[in-house]
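During the reporting period the student researcher (J.K.) took over the structure-prediction task from the postdoctoral fellow and processed the backlog of single-chain submissions. One of the processed entries is reproduced below for the supervisory committee.
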Amino acid sequence: MSADHVVVTTTVDSEAAARTIAASAIEARLAACAQIVGPITSVFRWEDEVQTAAEWRVECKTAADRSGALEEFLNVRHPYDLPEVIVTPIVGGSPRYLSWLVEETR
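J.K. obtained the following structure tokens:
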């Protein structure tokens, strides 16, 4: 099943960075809405060591045909060497909201 709408998720190391990424994605019309969740605790392996860090998750709602551009946008502006960028399909939802989501990314 192909989705017309997606959530693009990334994490950053501060609330300020999350707000900057969220606002700039909206301003660029690459996302209609972005939600910031955090702080969260992330546990991961980096440079051969298990690490723990406080992070903020940014969830960007966008039209599927804008997700590639949004992913590229995030990779260029992200403060991490290897940013998490995950695209998750939205398989249902309010038709009015989903229509608004597409309109705001044009």
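The committee noted the following: DSSP finds three helices and four strands in the chain.
J.K. will present the remaining backlog at the next meeting.
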